[in-house]
Amino acid sequence: MSMELTENAPSVAGKKPVANKSWKGNIREYGMLIALVVIMLFFQVLTDGVLLKPLNLTNLVLQNSYIIIMAIGMLLVIVAGHIDLSVGSVVGFIGALAAVLMVNLEWPIFPTVILCLATGGLIGAAQGYWVAYYRIPAFIVTLAGMLVFKGLTLALLNGKSVGPFPETFQRLSSGFIPDFFGAGGFHFTSFILGVGLILFLLLSGLFQRNKQIAHQMAVEPLIFFILKNGALSLSAGYILYLMSTYQGLPNVLIIMALLISAYTFFTNKSTVGRRIYAIGGNEKAAMLSGINTRRLTFLTFANMGVLAALAGLVFAARLNTATPKAGVAFELDVIAAVFIGGASMQGGVGKVTGAVVGALVMGVMNNGMSIMGLGIDWQQVIKGLVLLAAVIFDVYNKNKSA
Amino acid sequence: MAAILEMRGITKTFPGVTALDNVNLTVEDGEIHAIVGENGAGKSTLMKVLSGVHPAASYTGDIVFEQQVQSFQGIADSEQKGIIIIHQELALVPQLSIAENIFLGNEQAKNGFINWQMTFQKTQALLTKVGLTDAPDSLVLDIGVGKQQLVEIAKALSKNVKLLILDEPTASLNEKDSDALMELLLAFKKQGMSAILISHKLNEVRKVADTITVIRDGASVATLDCVKDGISEADIVKHMVGRAMEDRFPPKTAVVGETVFEVENWNVFHHLRQDRQVVKNANLSVKKGEVVGIAGLMGAGRTELAMSLFGKSYGRNISGRIKLKGKFQQFDTVNSAVKAGLAYVTEDRKNYGLVLIEDIAKNISLANLDGVAPNGIIDATKESSVAEQYRTDLNIKCSNIYQTTVNLSGGNQQKVVLSKWLFSNPDVLILDEPTRGIDVGAKFEIYSIIDQLAAQGKGVLMISSELPELLGMCDRIYVMNEGEIIGELSAEQASQEAIMSIIMKAGSRDHVDGIN
């Protein structure tokens, strides 16, 4: 459309707007990434190099996969301005359901997985229904859900552990992608796949940067861009190399990579993703802009349920047994990961990649402190302080820039 | 008369900006001194300096209060001397009673135990002074905004106030409550109290002020004596904007065409209290290229009418028919109303119009994301070019379209909200208080945009509490009172007196139903 408006309005057409929103704002997003690298190096030294041993790296991925999977869903819930305390209990419940179906009733794997994911979706939807359509605070609804599904897990398992799972199912968590080159020792398929992925990310980063320049958006200086991406690619490549000298890439890492890319794209590019951010930013304004705020809130919880169910399956497959204790307090790690990753308690702010980095920060600390033989007591204390420090740092930065 | 307050050569800088540049202000004992200026001119900063929010060391210049140089370190210091500010956003706790609010932080207590009898007695005496008849134990959330303002004043009186500062006290009051408040100020003046009044409403400033200080761009540019010299609104505006503003409204360019929007027998009930009808049997129509006003006091049901029309976003048990572009249509959701070509620009842009933490571009595309996202995937290039277009067309002043909207001035925020709705390409726009809290220069720009919209053949329904604005902009004006449309005036018939007399007549009619 074209409008000719007030004559006293100076024309800005043709004049290039000077972007003064500092690119330094982006540094904050990398702050946690830098912190992650520092923490890794710190523990690498303290554990005498055990942290980055191929075996341990693989373990690190396996140990944190379910937290990362749930952190993605939790990010959306928190961005929409809510919280889900029930995810830990859902992990336990779905694991128990899978065990009862596969071990006791001898169901085949595929239908079990589908039914479990659907059940997770239903659980999320049931909770989201009250939050979205009756405006019951999510804290209350999911606190109730936490108790309910913890209880149902116990009921389903009769208080006992059920296992072991069929071997094919275990591979969901403990399996590795096959090596088509068959040369023992080094896993070429994994390495080539990983290098391809890194190149793809580099190119899309460059593409994105050029597009931002075309839009006159603030970008970081070229030298910073090169340094950042160079450092990231090299460290990713190194870790990839280390894992390839062991058994290659775990299956669950592929699942995670797919989920992370899909949800990053969804949150950044899709209209539905944008609308969820708008709801968290100002629900009333979103509603008056024609956005179906209730339905989207409902779906956000349903999505969380599916991802919690997936995490439940991964966790059960990893333990190779369903226990009544499974999933206890997982919600705390997941929520901590999302906040360490820069999401805002008020909603409307947060990134998938941030949540993943947040989960990795927690994961590396868990792993490193365990290797050092630090007791679970002090581990908790330190993790709690790191969460607090990360959020204080965030708030301090925001106040400074305001 | 001696001066109760002298602020001499106040200069206050923030990193990178000089907010106040050698400002002088002298308030005589027992006068009402008005401070006027555009948004961002530095009025609030000056008051923050005076009240100690910006402590003594953070500015240069002298504050002389009651012949003594003061160096306030915080609000407590200035309040102790009897300088009390009532802010635009009221600082009352809605869930507490009037009495509890008045003595909040100053509880009538002995050894930590509150003496309720004394609290209520003192409250009663204060309420009588400000002319409030509500019981001291009524909750603040149960009384209207006008009364809440009076509670704030009662609270100030409880602190032994010598200089009362009112920051935009009537911004959210209707005309009746505003008049009452101004009368109260004049009554206090007779009793010898001094007051500083900050206001955008030049008519009320002219009515009560003895002296007016105009602040522009952080400097005090003029001090006008209202008593001796005859000051007109045009004089004040001239000093405020630094140039003469002959025309406060743009010339009309639109041609009125056929009817585009009709509402028949529209009824709406309160969203919580089902027995309370907030819109009663409303009938109205808007033609293409026509700007139609809805006048009425606050609480007349205008916003409720507008929001209920807009996809039933307010109220329940809604009945009636809407005809848009010649077709009867039913809008059960906001989305269906937007898709059909209706837009509603809210009266409360911060809470209902903008996602303040998001940038300009994302706010503009929000109501029509499909317009920048074929297949549900957002095209960033398209989105930014749309935002750039509106930035140019509506003259949104910002460093770039990726600036977050929370940092924009009121006028520019309003332009972003307008852009959002223009991008949804509506046939009919409902504008609810489109210039509330916007300074004079930006108001003219908003009026020009409205005129341009009409010239493009869109129908505009404009709700406003500022009668001069309705009279200056509208082709036709409906008058609403207590949920009913009680009158309709053409531009020729309409005048401030005509509208007010319709409202007053309806008020004295005492709830007789079905006038039309």
List the topology elements:
The complex is a heterodimer of chains A (402) and B (516).
Chain A: H1 24-46, H2 54-79, H3 87-104, H4 109-134, H5 138-157, H6 167-174, H7 188-214, H8 222-245, H9 251-269, H10 271-281, H11 283-288, H12 293-319, H13 330-340, H14 352-371, H15 376-401
Chain B: E1 3-14, E2 17-28, E3 32-36, H1 43-51, E4 60-65, E5 68-70, H2 75-81, E6 83-86, H3 98-102, E7 109-110, E8 113-114, H4 116-130, H5 145-158, E9 163-167, H6 175-190, E10 194-198, H7 202-208, E11 211-216, E12 219-225, H8 233-241, E13 259-269, E14 277-287, E15 291-295, H9 302-309, E16 316-324, E17 327-329, H10 334-340, E18 342-345, H11 349-353, H12 360-365, H13 380-393, H14 410-423, E19 428-432, H15 440-455, E20 459-463, H16 467-473, E21 476-481, E22 484-490, H17 496-508
Parallel strand pairs in B: 3-10, 3-11, 6-9, 9-10, 15-20, 15-21, 18-19, 19-20
Antiparallel strand pairs in B: 1-2, 1-4, 4-5, 7-8, 11-12, 13-14, 13-16, 16-17, 21-22
Helix pairs in contact in B: 4-5
Give the helix/strand class of chain B: alpha/beta
Give the oligomer, counting copies of the same chain as homo and different chains as hetero.
heterodimer
* Gyration radius of chain A, in Å: 23 Å
Q: What string gives the helices and strands of chain A in order?
A: HHHHHHHHHHHHHHH
Which features does this protein show?
heterodimer, A: 402 residues, mainly alpha, disordered N terminus, B: 516 residues, alpha/beta, 22 strands
Structural summary, described in words:
The complex is a heterodimer of chains A (402) and B (516). Chain A is mainly alpha-helical. Chain A is 73% helix and 0% strand. Chain A is built from 15 helices and no strands. Chain A has helices spanning 24-46, 54-79, 87-104, 109-134, 138-157, 167-174, 188-214, 222-245, 251-269, 271-281, 283-288, 293-319, 330-340, 352-371, 376-401. Chain A starts with 23 loop residues before the first helix and ends with a helix. The model of chain A is unreliable at 1-22 (pLDDT under 50). Chain B is globular. In chain B, α4 (116-130) crosses α5. The longest helix of chain B has 16 residues, at 175-190. Helices cover 33% and strands 26% of the residues of chain B. Residues 510-516 of chain B have low confidence and may be disordered. Chain B has helices at 43-51, 75-81, 98-102, 116-130, 145-158, 175-190, 202-208, 233-241, 302-309, 334-340, 349-353, 360-365, 380-393, 410-423, 440-455, 467-473, 496-508, and strands at 3-14, 17-28, 32-36, 60-65, 68-70, 83-86, 109-110, 113-114, 163-167, 194-198, 211-216, 219-225, 259-269, 277-287, 291-295, 316-324, 327-329, 342-345, 428-432, 459-463, 476-481, 484-490. Chain B is built from 17 helices and 22 strands. In chain B, β7 and β8 form a beta hairpin. Chain B is of the alpha/beta class and 516 residues long. In chain B, strands 6-9-10-3-11-12 form a 6-stranded mixed beta sheet, sandwiched between helices. Chains A and B meet through α10 and α11 of A and α10, α11, α13 and α15 of B.
